[in-house]
Design brief:
With about 250 residues, the protein is an alpha+beta fold. The chain is about 30% helix and about 20% strand. The chain contains five helices and nine strands. The protein has a four-stranded mixed β-sheet with strand order 2-9-8-5, with no helix packed on it. A three-stranded antiparallel β-sheet has the order 1-3-7, with no helix packed on it. It is elongated, with a radius of gyration of 27 Å.
Protein backbone atom coordinates (compact mmCIF):
# COMPACT_ATOMS: atom_id res chain seq x y z
CA UNK A 1 0.00 0.00 0.00
CA UNK A 2 2.83 2.35 0.83
CA UNK A 3 4.49 1.57 -2.50
CA UNK A 4 1.25 2.39 -4.34
CA UNK A 5 1.04 5.76 -2.61
CA UNK A 6 4.61 6.55 -3.64
CA UNK A 7 3.93 5.48 -7.24
CA UNK A 8 0.73 7.56 -7.41
CA UNK A 9 2.59 10.53 -5.90
CA UNK A 10 5.34 10.27 -8.50
CA UNK A 11 2.71 9.97 -11.25
CA UNK A 12 0.90 13.17 -10.24
CA UNK A 13 4.23 14.94 -9.75
CA UNK A 14 5.23 14.02 -13.31
CA UNK A 15 1.88 15.30 -14.61
CA UNK A 16 2.50 18.55 -12.73
CA UNK A 17 5.90 18.94 -14.40
CA UNK A 18 4.33 18.37 -17.81
CA UNK A 19 1.68 21.03 -17.26
CA UNK A 20 4.16 23.52 -15.77
CA UNK A 21 6.43 22.88 -18.74
CA UNK A 22 3.57 23.59 -21.13
CA UNK A 23 2.68 26.75 -19.22
CA UNK A 24 6.28 27.93 -19.36
CA UNK A 25 6.35 27.45 -23.14
CA UNK A 26 3.22 29.57 -23.51
CA UNK A 27 4.83 32.40 -21.53
CA UNK A 28 8.00 32.15 -23.63
CA UNK A 29 5.95 32.27 -26.82
CA UNK A 30 4.16 35.42 -25.66
CA UNK A 31 7.38 37.10 -24.58
CA UNK A 32 8.97 36.26 -27.93
CA UNK A 33 6.31 38.24 -29.83
CA UNK A 34 7.18 41.92 -29.24
CA UNK A 35 4.96 44.79 -30.35
CA UNK A 36 5.20 48.57 -30.59
CA UNK A 37 3.04 51.40 -29.30
CA UNK A 38 2.97 55.19 -29.34
CA UNK A 39 3.96 56.72 -26.02
CA UNK A 40 1.11 58.64 -24.41
CA UNK A 41 1.75 61.04 -21.57
CA UNK A 42 3.88 63.96 -20.43
CA UNK A 43 7.51 64.38 -21.41
CA UNK A 44 8.24 62.02 -24.26
CA UNK A 45 11.82 61.45 -25.48
CA UNK A 46 11.68 64.88 -27.14
CA UNK A 47 10.61 66.49 -23.85
CA UNK A 48 7.08 67.22 -25.08
CA UNK A 49 3.59 66.09 -24.13
CA UNK A 50 2.39 63.34 -26.46
CA UNK A 51 -1.30 62.46 -26.30
CA UNK A 52 -2.04 60.71 -29.58
CA UNK A 53 -1.88 63.76 -31.84
CA UNK A 54 0.22 66.76 -32.82
CA UNK A 55 -0.71 69.96 -34.66
CA UNK A 56 1.89 71.82 -36.67
CA UNK A 57 1.89 75.10 -38.61
CA UNK A 58 4.59 76.47 -40.89
CA UNK A 59 3.15 79.89 -39.97
CA UNK A 60 5.37 80.05 -36.87
CA UNK A 61 8.71 79.06 -38.35
CA UNK A 62 9.19 81.70 -41.04
CA UNK A 63 8.37 81.93 -44.72
CA UNK A 64 11.75 80.49 -45.78
CA UNK A 65 11.08 77.13 -44.10
CA UNK A 66 9.58 74.71 -46.64
CA UNK A 67 10.17 71.42 -44.81
CA UNK A 68 10.11 70.51 -41.12
CA UNK A 69 10.01 67.44 -38.90
CA UNK A 70 7.87 66.29 -35.98
CA UNK A 71 9.35 63.55 -33.78
CA UNK A 72 7.03 60.83 -32.50
CA UNK A 73 7.96 58.68 -29.51
CA UNK A 74 7.53 54.93 -30.18
CA UNK A 75 8.05 52.37 -27.40
CA UNK A 76 8.70 48.61 -27.34
CA UNK A 77 6.48 46.09 -25.58
CA UNK A 78 8.66 43.01 -25.16
CA UNK A 79 12.36 42.21 -25.14
CA UNK A 80 15.05 44.27 -26.82
CA UNK A 81 17.10 42.72 -29.62
CA UNK A 82 20.78 42.74 -30.55
CA UNK A 83 19.84 43.81 -34.08
CA UNK A 84 18.02 46.78 -35.63
CA UNK A 85 14.35 46.07 -36.35
CA UNK A 86 12.26 47.81 -39.00
CA UNK A 87 9.11 49.70 -37.96
CA UNK A 88 6.13 49.53 -40.30
CA UNK A 89 3.76 52.52 -40.61
CA UNK A 90 0.78 52.99 -42.92
CA UNK A 91 -1.57 55.93 -43.51
CA UNK A 92 -5.14 55.04 -42.56
CA UNK A 93 -7.17 58.10 -43.62
CA UNK A 94 -8.25 59.40 -47.01
CA UNK A 95 -10.39 62.14 -48.52
CA UNK A 96 -9.99 65.83 -49.38
CA UNK A 97 -8.55 66.75 -45.97
CA UNK A 98 -6.08 63.84 -45.85
CA UNK A 99 -2.39 64.64 -46.23
CA UNK A 100 -0.94 63.25 -49.46
CA UNK A 101 2.28 61.22 -49.38
CA UNK A 102 4.98 62.80 -51.49
CA UNK A 103 3.15 66.15 -51.50
CA UNK A 104 2.41 67.15 -47.90
CA UNK A 105 4.82 64.72 -46.25
CA UNK A 106 7.53 62.24 -47.18
CA UNK A 107 5.82 58.88 -47.58
CA UNK A 108 6.58 55.99 -45.26
CA UNK A 109 7.83 53.88 -48.18
CA UNK A 110 10.36 56.52 -49.22
CA UNK A 111 14.02 55.39 -48.78
CA UNK A 112 14.65 58.31 -46.42
CA UNK A 113 11.84 57.14 -44.15
CA UNK A 114 12.71 53.46 -44.46
CA UNK A 115 16.13 54.27 -43.08
CA UNK A 116 14.61 56.24 -40.19
CA UNK A 117 11.83 53.80 -39.25
CA UNK A 118 13.96 51.50 -37.10
CA UNK A 119 13.97 50.35 -33.50
CA UNK A 120 17.71 50.35 -32.81
CA UNK A 121 19.48 47.32 -31.40
CA UNK A 122 19.31 47.03 -27.60
CA UNK A 123 16.83 49.92 -27.33
CA UNK A 124 13.21 49.94 -26.14
CA UNK A 125 12.23 53.42 -27.36
CA UNK A 126 12.93 55.61 -30.39
CA UNK A 127 11.88 58.91 -31.95
CA UNK A 128 10.60 58.50 -35.50
CA UNK A 129 10.25 61.46 -37.90
CA UNK A 130 7.20 62.77 -39.69
CA UNK A 131 8.74 64.98 -42.39
CA UNK A 132 6.25 67.61 -43.57
CA UNK A 133 6.48 69.67 -46.75
CA UNK A 134 5.01 73.16 -47.05
CA UNK A 135 2.63 73.53 -50.00
CA UNK A 136 0.55 76.39 -51.41
CA UNK A 137 -2.74 74.72 -50.40
CA UNK A 138 -1.63 74.75 -46.76
CA UNK A 139 -2.05 78.54 -46.75
CA UNK A 140 -5.83 78.08 -46.65
CA UNK A 141 -6.31 74.48 -45.47
CA UNK A 142 -5.36 71.99 -42.80
CA UNK A 143 -4.35 68.46 -43.80
CA UNK A 144 -4.50 65.43 -41.52
CA UNK A 145 -2.21 62.43 -41.50
CA UNK A 146 -3.61 59.49 -39.53
CA UNK A 147 -1.22 56.56 -39.35
CA UNK A 148 -0.88 53.21 -37.66
CA UNK A 149 1.83 50.87 -36.42
CA UNK A 150 1.34 47.52 -38.15
CA UNK A 151 2.98 44.14 -37.80
CA UNK A 152 5.94 42.90 -39.81
CA UNK A 153 8.65 40.24 -39.54
CA UNK A 154 9.83 41.74 -36.25
CA UNK A 155 6.69 42.92 -34.45
CA UNK A 156 3.15 41.68 -34.00
CA UNK A 157 0.26 44.20 -34.06
CA UNK A 158 -0.13 46.04 -30.76
CA UNK A 159 -3.15 47.33 -28.85
CA UNK A 160 -5.15 49.46 -31.29
CA UNK A 161 -5.72 52.29 -28.77
CA UNK A 162 -1.97 52.92 -28.70
CA UNK A 163 -1.11 51.97 -32.28
CA UNK A 164 -2.56 54.99 -34.09
CA UNK A 165 -1.46 58.62 -34.23
CA UNK A 166 -2.66 61.81 -35.92
CA UNK A 167 -0.73 64.82 -37.23
CA UNK A 168 -2.46 67.97 -38.49
CA UNK A 169 -0.33 70.19 -40.73
CA UNK A 170 -0.98 73.63 -42.19
CA UNK A 171 0.63 76.98 -43.00
CA UNK A 172 -2.21 78.94 -41.39
CA UNK A 173 -2.04 80.36 -37.92
CA UNK A 174 -3.60 77.90 -35.49
CA UNK A 175 -4.67 78.63 -31.95
CA UNK A 176 -1.97 77.44 -29.52
CA UNK A 177 -3.16 74.70 -27.20
CA UNK A 178 -2.52 76.79 -24.08
CA UNK A 179 -3.85 80.13 -25.34
CA UNK A 180 -6.87 80.30 -22.99
CA UNK A 181 -4.71 79.32 -20.02
CA UNK A 182 -1.50 81.25 -20.71
CA UNK A 183 -2.06 84.13 -23.15
CA UNK A 184 -5.68 85.25 -23.04
CA UNK A 185 -5.08 87.53 -20.05
CA UNK A 186 -2.15 89.25 -21.82
CA UNK A 187 -3.34 89.38 -25.43
CA UNK A 188 -7.10 88.83 -25.29
CA UNK A 189 -9.17 86.67 -27.63
CA UNK A 190 -7.21 84.65 -30.15
CA UNK A 191 -7.18 85.45 -33.86
CA UNK A 192 -4.96 84.66 -36.86
CA UNK A 193 -4.14 88.29 -37.67
CA UNK A 194 -3.49 88.97 -34.01
CA UNK A 195 -1.01 86.08 -34.02
CA UNK A 196 0.68 87.50 -37.11
CA UNK A 197 0.97 90.91 -35.45
CA UNK A 198 2.43 89.43 -32.26
CA UNK A 199 5.08 87.56 -34.23
CA UNK A 200 6.00 90.30 -36.72
CA UNK A 201 5.62 93.49 -34.65
CA UNK A 202 5.77 92.47 -30.99
CA UNK A 203 8.44 89.80 -31.44
CA UNK A 204 6.66 87.16 -29.38
CA UNK A 205 7.08 83.79 -31.10
CA UNK A 206 7.21 81.08 -28.42
CA UNK A 207 3.68 79.90 -27.69
CA UNK A 208 4.72 76.61 -26.11
CA UNK A 209 4.80 77.69 -22.46
CA UNK A 210 3.29 80.08 -19.93
CA UNK A 211 4.35 83.72 -19.75
CA UNK A 212 5.55 82.72 -16.31
CA UNK A 213 4.85 85.70 -14.09
CA UNK A 214 2.60 88.74 -13.68
CA UNK A 215 5.49 91.08 -14.51
CA UNK A 216 6.17 89.26 -17.79
CA UNK A 217 2.49 89.20 -18.71
CA UNK A 218 2.24 92.94 -18.01
CA UNK A 219 5.40 93.66 -20.01
CA UNK A 220 4.14 91.90 -23.15
CA UNK A 221 0.67 93.34 -22.75
CA UNK A 222 2.04 96.89 -22.67
CA UNK A 223 4.46 96.12 -25.51
CA UNK A 224 1.66 94.74 -27.70
CA UNK A 225 -0.59 97.73 -27.02
CA UNK A 226 2.20 100.20 -27.80
CA UNK A 227 3.13 98.36 -31.01
CA UNK A 228 -0.50 98.27 -32.15
CA UNK A 229 -0.99 101.97 -31.39
CA UNK A 230 2.09 102.83 -33.46
CA UNK A 231 0.97 100.59 -36.31
CA UNK A 232 -2.58 101.98 -36.41
CA UNK A 233 -1.27 105.56 -36.37
CA UNK A 234 0.46 104.83 -39.66
CA UNK A 235 -1.70 102.16 -41.30
CA UNK A 236 -5.09 102.15 -39.62
CA UNK A 237 -6.85 99.32 -37.74
CA UNK A 238 -6.17 95.63 -38.35
CA UNK A 239 -9.08 93.23 -38.84
CA UNK A 240 -9.37 89.49 -38.84
CA UNK A 241 -10.27 87.72 -42.09
CA UNK A 242 -13.99 88.30 -41.47
CA UNK A 243 -13.41 92.04 -41.96
CA UNK A 244 -15.37 92.77 -38.79
CA UNK A 245 -13.33 91.60 -35.80
CA UNK A 246 -10.75 94.27 -34.99
CA UNK A 247 -7.39 93.29 -33.55
CA UNK A 248 -7.15 94.80 -30.06
CA UNK A 249 -5.31 94.03 -26.84
CA UNK A 250 -6.96 94.27 -23.40
Amino acid sequence: MKNKIIIYGLYFLAIGFIFSGCEEKVVDKFDAAPSLYFYEGNWNLEGEDQKGEFSYSFFYVGSDVTQDTLWIDVRLNGFTSNEDRAINLIQINSGDSAAVAGKHYIGFDDPVMQEALVMPANEDAVLIPIIMKKTADMETNEFVLDFELVGNDYFVPGIIEHSTFSVTMTAMAVKPQGWDSYYDYAFGEWGQEKMRFLIEYVGYTDFSASLGSYDLYKYYNLKARAALEAYEAENGPIYESDGVTRVIFP
